[in-house]
Amino acid sequence: MTKYMNILKSVAVVAALFAVVSCETIETDLTEDPNQLTANDANIEFLFNSNQIALVSFFQNLQFQEATVSRMELMRNSPFYASQYDAGSFDGAWTRAYANLLNETKQLKVIAAEIETDVVNANNYIAAAQILEAYTIVTLVDTFGDIPFSEALQGSDNFDPGRDSGESVYAAARELLLNAIVRINGTNSVDLASDLYFNGDMNKWKALANSLLLKVAVSSRLNNSNEATEANAVINGADFISSNAGDFEFKWSTSAEPESRHPLFQAQYVGGAGTYMSNAMLSRMDGDPRFNYYFYQQDGADPFQYPPAGGNGFEGRAHGDAGPSVASDYPRITVHGLYPAGGKYNDGTTGATSGTMGAAGAGISPIMTHAFTQFLLAEAQLTLNNNAGAARNALIAGVTASMDKVTGFQGGAGGADN
User: Fold this and answer.
1) H-helix or E-strand containing 336?
2) What is the pTM of this model?
3) Cis? peptide before 34, omega within 30° of 0
4) Cβ-Cβ contacts under 8 Å for 177 (sequence gap 6 or more)
């Protein structure tokens, strides 16, 4: 045995010496280190795909967090607003915004510049990426106020970027959007190879940019002396999202492998119901024609019967209820329904949720829609133009657009398996 081990050791030593000598004369590293790739090694199509996924992930993460304190979802961590969030509550949103979307947009622009020649350019990619960038930084300002921007994305050169004022970030977003529109209106751009939102329709991207310009003007009206001029330029141009067919939304699928179903469907159907809804939201929606699209009552009971009678009626929890979850509640609690989660339409039939129920997860994330745009128009007409009649018309148009979208989603109440 000892002799055998000595032979192995000798072979190992010789092999090691041979490797050292060989490295001096033979190039053995014939591949690039995947951990040392530069922006030039990246692919513009893959970067743009990643951008699009990062945007909807950012939207879903931040939207749910904010919905809890506005009573649309259940504020679950604490009965006190100041204690609802902790230091890590928004880590996901910040990571998706900076490490993913904004950083990748920066890389995408570097690659796009190298593609440009006298006869071809990547303006469509730059325009779409800048629109996503503008949406992201405006949303960050709306949520957090002043944010890192001008000093951000410098890597090891600056680990502690200073914050820019919300006003300056809004101004930067406006310039990104205006520049995106100019690029879309240009010529000779390569097409978007994989557009998950508009299937390569740059007119819809331009309409989105104008809807976001309207949002920027309306939201900055208290700190922007040009807000009326900027808003009316969009209103008079009439080139914003003007129908539900032009909505900026991410469409989820029924695919389980890879997992591509709506996050709310995953949370409340795939593994069974286990997330309480907000009774405040259920009460607010009582009698609304969209109630049966938004919510599914597993036990079919009256959600507004309090206290619960013999177990029936228990559907959600009160705002700020931080009490422990009760497993026996789960078969009775109300969950998200057909819209937008791709769950089940609330048609009076009952039963515990499952991964095959309703639209099987083929929901949407409605990020900027025709209805939202009409509500912005209503606010602009009322607060900037003092035009109550136009504001009323826009408000009605927004509500109508929402009703039509929700009640017609996935075939509506009569859709297959809904």
Assistant:
1) strand 334-336
2) 0.87
3) no
4) 130, 131, 134, 209, 210, 212, 213, 216
